Amino acid sequence: MRDLLSVDDLDRAAIDDLLDLGDDFVEVLGRDVPKVPALRGKTVGLMFYEPSTRTRLSFDRAAKALSADVLTFTPGGSSVSKGESLKDTALTLKAMGPHLMVVRHKATGAPWRVRDWTGLPVVNAGDGAHQHPTQALLDLLTLRRHFGKVDGLRVAIVGDIRHSRVARSLAGSLHTMGASVTLVAPSTLLPIDVDSWEVDSAAGIDEVLGEVDVVYLLRIQTERGGGEVFPSVAEYVSRFGLTRRRADQLPADTVVMHPGPMNRGVEIDPQVADGPRALVTDQVSNGIAVRMAVLFRLLTSEVPE
């Protein structure tokens, strides 16, 4: 594996390999000194053209836990404000000596272009509404560590699926790993190409409450137009929000997940978000371990210690 641009590039064996490595790095992160020298002498470049809390900090933490140096670019205060292109920025960062680039950009396909321009290995940290492969991997690791498996799980993905790179990556990787997926959203928030997805669909969250192992909630992406295609927030909550009443109807072992940022009181009730079913903080912790696994696999052929 030279790059990680899409979950479509990963078969089941490749995903299992990264999840197994992720398990190893969960153990590393639990040590008194949560660091290994595996990538000492390497530099990881972070190119984040969109706002990010979890993903950017997670990649930064992952690289440093592997003893790599980190070179971080964000557009605020940069020459992007003077008209510098993505290509010129990528080539400028390449000249500073990174061994791998992590790229987030609003334009679909941007990480592929950075790979072609620089010749460096690239990890896609989110391109438009297209792909977010490491988010899918951390979600799979979270599910596997909680349930002991992914195969056979029933997962409902609820919310603004049309504009969600998380949903696209997660649905594909869940299918690869043997889970079943149901998309729950207003018709206006389903992908145009949903017929090509290996999923079922439901018109409201009440249809799936008693039949799922995982409720995976997504926010409405207003920055991509998601808030313009349904009448009101109140109506959305009435059909798709995971309220306390609905959470009480879930099977005892069903868990709740969310990639963040959460809009409490819209897709998820605050008490549900903070309740015992929620694996949200586990997702964040496992994100560091999975990204360590990805960086390790792309930058070395050694066996982790």
Question: Could you give the topology of this structure?
Answer:
Elements (H helix, E strand, L loop, with lengths): L11 H18 L13 E6 L5 H12 L3 E5 L12 H10 L4 E6 L4 H9 L3 E6 L5 H15 L6 E5 L6 H12 L3 E5 L15 E3 L11 E4 L15 H8 L3 H5 L6 E3 L12 H4 L6 H20 L6
Parallel strand pairs: 1-2, 1-3, 3-4, 5-6, 5-8, 6-7, 8-9
Helix pairs in contact: 1-5, 1-10, 2-10, 3-4, 5-6, 5-10
Query: Helix count?
Result: 10
Structurally, the number of domains stands at: 2
Judging from the principal axes of the Cα atoms, what is the shape? globular
Strand content: 5-15%
The amount of helix comes to: 25-40%
Going across the biggest sheet, name each strand in turn: 7-6-5-8-9
CATH homologous superfamily designation of the largest domain: Aspartate/ornithine carbamoyltransferase
Mean pLDDT: 94
Write structural notes for this entry.
- The structure is a single chain.
- This protein has ten helices and nine strands.
- It has helices at 12-29, 54-65, 86-95, 110-118, 133-147, 165-176, 233-240, 244-248, 270-273, 280-299; strands at residues 43-48, 69-73, 100-105, 122-127, 154-158, 180-184, 200-202, 214-217, 255-257.
- A five-stranded parallel sheet has the order 7-6-5-8-9, covered by helices on one side. Strands 2-1-3-4 form a four-stranded parallel sheet, with helices on both faces.
- Helix 1 crosses helix 5 (133-147) and helix 5 (133-147) packs across helix 10 (280-299).
- The longest helix is centred in the last third of the chain and has 20 residues, at 280-299.
- It is globular and about 55 Å long.
- The model has no long low-confidence stretch (mean pLDDT 94).
